[in-house]
Amino acid sequence: MPLNPVARIMRATAIAATLSAAGTLGIVGTASAADSGDKPQIDVLNWWTSGSEAKSMRVLQQMLGDKGVKMNNDAVSGGGGSNARTVLKSRIQSHNTPGVAQIKGPKIQQWCETGLIGSMDKAAKSDNWDEHVAPRIAKSLQCDGEYVAVPFNVHRINWLWVNRSLLKEVDAEMPQTWSQFVGVLKKLKKADITPIAGGGNTWQVGTAFDALVGTVGDAKFYRKALIKLDQDALSSDKMVQAFKRLRTIQKYTDPNAAGLSWNHNTGMVVQGKAAMQIMGDWAKGEITNDGKTPGEEIACVTMPGNKNSYIYNVDTFEAFTVDSKSRQKAQAVFANTVMSPAFQRKFNMAKGSIPVREGTSLKGFDLCAKRSAQLYKKAKKADALVPSMSQDMAEVGAVKGAIFDVIAKFYNTKDMTAQDAAETLASRVKQAKQMSQL
Length: 438
Ligand code: BGC
Hints:
Layout: H1 5-21, E1 41-46, H2 51-66, E2 70-75, H3 82-93, E3 100-102, H4 107-112, H5 121-126, H6 129-132, H7 135-140, E4 142-143, E5 146-147, E6 149-151, E7 153-156, E8 159-163, H8 164-169, H9 178-190, E9 194-196, H10 202-216, H11 219-227, H12 231-234, H13 237-251, H14 262-270, E10 274-278, H15 282-289, E11 298-302, E12 310-313, E13 316-319, H16 325-338, H17 341-351, E14 354-355, H18 367-381, E15 385-387, H19 397-412, H20 418-437
Helix pairs in contact: 2-17, 10-13, 10-19, 13-20, 19-20
């Protein structure tokens, strides 16, 4: 059972003492900023700062506003959320805990351990989330059997976004296999067209690597390597091949990409400055926001060569303990609103994802969303749904950090061999696992 309020405070106090003794976080408080009047309000800490992400958040702000809740959109830039996670910790230190924060995958459970987490269980029970959310996802939202987080969507990672007219210009077909893809890359380069926009930072390279692992092995392999962290799989020939493919991608990527954000890179594809981008379907939000129709001018293609994996990412927001009835009320309204079919439709249309609430109508969604929903069902049947390593759905801090370090080292060291990278990956993951057990 979840901690009762007294036990929660005791646990939070104990953790605060430990953390400040260790000099890491200083004093941790469960109190949020003082209430301003009686109007329910909620601070929503997130990393959704691109054009389409901000637009999606305005959908939420508006719907909460209509229900009398003021939402403060505390967005911190940085794709993948590492800056937002740092801000969350410092806000807790300074007694300015948000009502909810964007936290995903196993990190939801880690936060439970702190005793600083609030509850969304009443909202979940009253709307029967157990019936509306896939069991595996529902489980990840609970601590000790109580819902503490609400899911927004399902994003798919292993997509390739393609500017159709640039492909036409070089007389290339839409690639489906890896060798067709390499053929297209060559044609584009020869025609002086930047084949791929990407590589701006490690998170973008890690996202592409996720998709590449899906091309060298099936969902079983992905799980064995990146979720179970099996040493043989991590150093296998398949993993060597994944690194080789990453090197190929790098060769055809915009050489001036350093520091460019993922959404800038999506813009390059939309504007015809580059032909393709490997990215999760939040890219679709940007395409729509730029006035184009995903599936038409910009095609959505499964990462060429993908075996059968649907690599998924579910955005979730976890509740923190708040100090007043009106803030608790705001949390409940937040949870109910996010899971409502109306929000699920409107938000996901803007965001590029598909509704996480099962049975939500996709009427009016674009072709790529419909395709994503079909592929999700197919993968579910084939047991080929896999949580994304790069988007924190599979690994906790230290292990994911080690994987990203190796990917970055390989990307930045052009003479590092793929063999070397796979071996380093296995040993760094082993070390990180051991360290995290200490
Ligand atoms: C999030 C997406 C977001 C993307 C870029 C991912 O980690 O899950 O919702 O759009 O980062 O910011």
